[in-house]
Known about the structure:
This protein is mostly helical and 614 residues long.
Amino acid sequence: MQMTLFNPGFRQRLLLVVIVTLVGFAVLGGLSVSALNSQVDAAGHADELSGWQNELNLFKIDILAVAARDRNDRAALESLRQEKRAQLERLGAEGVDVGAIIDLLDELVRLQTEVIDLGSRIGDGNQTGARGALNEQIQAFEAAMFSNMRPWLEDVKKALAQLVERRDPESIKGYEASIQVLRDKITELGFIDAFADRIDQVAASGGQLVKLLRDQAAVQHQTRSELETLLSSTDMLIQLIDSRLQQARADAAATTSRASFSILAAAVAVALVSAVLLLSVWRSSTRTLSRTVESLEKIAKGDLQQRLDVDTQRNDDFDRLGLAVNGLTEQLGGVLNRVVSSSHRLQSMSSELSGTLEQLVAESGHTEDETGSVAAAVEQISMTVRDMALASEETNNLALGAHEATEKGGAVITDALGSLEQLAAIFDQVHRELDELGVASSRVDGVTEMINGLAEQTNLLALNAAIEAARAGEAGRGFSVVADEVRALAEKTVNATASINKIIGEMQAQMKHILEAMRDGQGRVDGSRSLGDNAAGEMSRIRDLFTQVRDRNHQQAASIEEISATAQSIATSMSGVLDTVRGNAERSREIRNFSGQVVSHSDELLGMTGQFRC
């Protein structure tokens, strides 16, 4: 790429604009990163100071909570001391001067521990520590004193309660005064010798309690003083950190302001330089493009002899564009000359093609007529095959109906055979019952014979009784009457048994006739059953024959369906062939028309190419 100092090309100027813009953006990016780093550092320092301040505030809050904690919880106090000491040591490792605060914390915890120890020695109630010992002495004194001393002892108890509750100098003086009043009153009563030791013990225990309370009050006062000192030192350190935090925030704001000004100034400078370079490129490219457009407009009007001015020494993109346009016009001139020659040849060939297509269109019409006749014949065959398929389907339906009727006839015969079987079973049952009835009638004959025997014996006994009554004379007349009655009954019994035998004989004769009729009916039933079995077999064979007929009808219907499908396929194919032939004929006509249009266009092309100057 050639580039001179005073005549740079379009691409070099555009590249210079891009380089300047990229350098400007790089400078802006560097300034932005630098400003961002400065802001991050300032913000990090401010966050660090704010964290220190928060840590110390939390430390102060926890220390203030020490006074509200349970005074007997030494383990919690020691845990708090270790936790806060570790917290302060972390701050010290980060550069905060916390040595004095750590010492004050240790002293505060020590004093608070001493307060807890003194409280333990004093006692949490009336059962432990010095309070418990004093309460025992008072109870022992109360058990040994007289009843008139009770009011003074009650005053001592009240003073002791106020002492434990208030723990101030006034309550201590009140308690000591109540002990002295008790001693004086007992002395006035003249019982001091008896109760001196007990009063001294109560006074000694009370003095020990008072001493512990005073010591605890002194340590608590020292603890409060130490706490105030610790809190004051913590507040001073917090104020120091707060002032440093305010300074850090001010520094961060100043850094942000400087960075914003630097970025804005660099952006304005980059924008000005880029604008100047872009304006120069725009002016140069506008002049060159104007000349190029004028030349292209002339070329568009048909002046292919037009050429663009090209600076071969500068050789920039616009110069290469001019060279390309000049080469294009030269090639277009050559192409137009060849187009004129080709148009003449095309006009001649189109005329020959038109004659050939006329003959092809005539032959396509004849082929279309023959194909239509074949398609009509195939369609008639297809309709005949469809009629055959319908007839086969109707035959198949009739065969199915006959098969169903055969099935129903077989079912009827089967039911009739079942009924005959039931009738034969009934005949067998009746025959058995008649046989049993004959056996029963035979047993009745035996019974009647036995009755006849008994009647004859009774008649003989009556006759003998009548003879004996006759012998007895008048005394046996009544017995003779009875014997006559018995004989008469015996004769009636014989007559009755004779009638029964006659009836049984008639029944047996009728039963024989019935048995013969039953045997004849059973034989006829057996014959009917045999005929029914034969009929069922014939119906089964008929059903099998109808099944075969139905299967063959199915096969015939399937064959007819295949023939119909084949005929339909042939008809469809012939329709497609007919459509193809018609399409070919139509396309031949279109080609003939196109050939005429080609001749017309060739004439137009020759007219248009004549407008150009090559």
